[in-house]
Amino acid sequence: MENQAIINKNIRITGIVQGVGFRPFIFNLAKSHNLKGYVLNDTQGVLIEVEGEHDVINKFVNSIKTDAPIHSKIDNIMVDDGALKEFSGFEIKKSAANGSKNTNISPDLATCADCEKELFDKENFRFRYPFINCTNCGPRFSIINDVPYDRKNTSMKDFTMCEVCQKEYDDPSDRRFHAQPNACPACGPHYALYDNRRNKIEDKDPIAKATEFLKIGKIIAIKGLGGYHLAVDAQDNFAVKTLRDRKFREDKPFALMAKNIEMIKQVCYVNEKEEELLKSAASPIVLLERKESDLISNFVAPKHKTLGFMLPYMPAHKLILEHMPYIVMTSGNKSNEPVYYKDEDAFYHLKDIADYFLAHNREIVRRCDDSVVRVFNRRPQILRRSRGYVPFVLKTDIEFKKPALAVGAHLKNTFAYGFGNKIVVSHHIGDLDNLETYDAFVSGINDFSKIFDVIPEVIAHDMHPDYLSSQYSYDEKLPKVSVQHHHTHIAACMCENKLNEKVIGVAWDGTGLGADNTVWGSEILIADYKGFERAAHFDYLNLPGGEKAIAEPWRIALAALYDIYKEHLLDFNFAFLKNKDKEEVDFLIDILKKDVNIVKSCGIGRLFDAVSAILNVCGEVNYEGQAAIELEQAIDINVRDYKNYYDYVINYETKPYVASYKEIISQVVDDLIINKLGVGSISAKFHNTLAMIIFDIVLRLSRDTGINKIVLSGGAFQNIYLLHRVCQKLRKFEFEVYTHGNFPPNDGCISLGQLAIAGTRD
């Protein structure tokens, strides 16, 4: 066969193609095809110029598509003709930093099997080195200062590679070929151990020493990838209780880390999908159904039937857990503050919580909390999106005419940028309740603007004027798009599922300012990106004392009962009122009678609060959503009779339709007081009733409008029992039901929805 002429092609590849071993892959692929030219990183992604025969170059390009590194994600490959240069070989060229930035950044990646093997190999010179990594694993997002992804643009710039590491870095046959964080004990970062007054504890193996302290019940602050953790032996009741007391975290569950998957299976049920998530490069916290076991302290997750587990994703974690089965690994912060990632902040704020600090000398460029995920219908559903998933870029059908910034909600805040046809949503910031979290929010916005080279020309915010995120937008001299909270929830789920048409959206949560300036939260909407119609909701509950009632759900229960029984509610001798001050109860009844100092809310979260308190499950909360969460946890798993629900009333004569809570609560009281039904059975019936109400209203709206696509969003759909029941009922009647997967159903998705709406406004 006659040889073809040698031609030149310029190949541009965009997507997640930096920090994932892409250049070494291209280098070796080009060599195997006997092509000449070069590959380099730049601010757009990866640029390749090759010379060879036409058919060979085609095979080369096809191999890029089919054999790319496992952690890469190719968005686009563009091939253009070029002028012949007569290259003598193929090389990796120095990165180019000119031009606008348009490349995606890889998330941090859990330690790979090859590196773990070397970590415990006594013959390997990296034996027990806690910063072992390669092109397939290690830090990325948490260490990068700028693109292109080169060592000089990361916090590894402070560590010059030794001769051995440099040789690996330069060797195309080595898996550390162009691995930017490459290091070893001779040239890389190190851990050191300190007491809580920052006195260094001299020890040749500070990680082993820290592990000894964990075994005797000490609390250790451990510097990781995206911040500090607080760790303690998860089997030691006294140690876990001490951590709770010092952190002022009374009830909220702690995250756990286990030595391996076998240890997790001893205390939790783990299906195939859950195991896959646990072992993935993202290595999130996975919520699992717990078994009857005394291997984990009861103080880890009181009143919970689930445990949140992750596997060791850093070499240091693997070394700590080498001789321990389980440890608590909770965020290194004070309650309601962001995770600390700077050494000075951690030592200052955690000195009264931690006994010792295991810190390393590599800078964490940006904080990034652990992600939280569960499996629903054999599909991952992210509840907190952060390490391992950020900063993945979402490609959408929305084309942003102007770069836009969305500042998210007040609780579980994230922000997001939209540019071109892309959206990048930030890592979890937290609740904007204090200056520390607000500062993290502002610095995060500036950080993303820099690394993604995007200057917003439009800003989208929640219509609630008192949210700190909204206040931030008011201070910016940009055109603003004000978006209703529940419309945003539906838009976020639509965007994630690539829907761009009218849907019936169910947005159920605790609180959101409505278009009529009342407090919404049980919304069923007819919506698309451009607007919405409020089609149905629950009637309004009284919240005596406003915000105080949200912290003390027994007040909401009292108000709901007063609405039904007036002063006769005291005749029932409710258990939840037995230890309450009589004067306070009488005072609340008086203000309910006079209708003063009362906020009205139709948030479904408040109805959960009322029922939870009436059943004496949870009358006062220590964390957001606690009463609703514990009510779900109280469901008797042996009484999951989906057909058993309460009678309910929906007023279809009004527009919007209104569902009544009074009939439901009165039947809850009958079951509790008269029928002496167990709390687990009552909770199941209550949940089933809510599912039936959604179904009833959706069926009516669908018949009226012809809409068959149903979108579910809002914090209430973190309730796995309710979500399962609603989806099961709707799908049985052949509705197309869309839920969240890659973004949280809670307010962590709000910035995404704000951008989706802003991007479609004229």
Give a written overview of the molecule.
- With 762 residues, the chain is of the alpha/beta class.
- It has five domains: 6-92, Alpha-Beta Plaits; 105-189, DHBP synthase; 191-372, Alpha-Beta Complex (DHBP synthase), CATH 3.90.870.40; 391-483, 2-Layer Sandwich (Nucleotidyltransferase, domain 5); 536-738, ATPase, nucleotide binding domain (Nucleotidyltransferase, domain 5).
- Helices cover 31% and strands 23% of the residues.
- It is built from 22 helices and 29 strands.
- An eleven-stranded mixed β-sheet has the order 7-6-14-8-9-13-10-12-11-15-16, sandwiched between helices. A seven-stranded mixed β-sheet has the order 26-27-23-22-21-28-29, with helices on both faces. Strands 4-1-3-2-5 form a five-stranded mixed β-sheet.
- A hairpin with a 5-residue loop joins strand 21 (503-513) and strand 22 (519-528).
- Helix 13 (485-496) crosses helix 22 and helix 15 (553-565) packs across helix 17 (604-614).
- The mean pLDDT is 94.
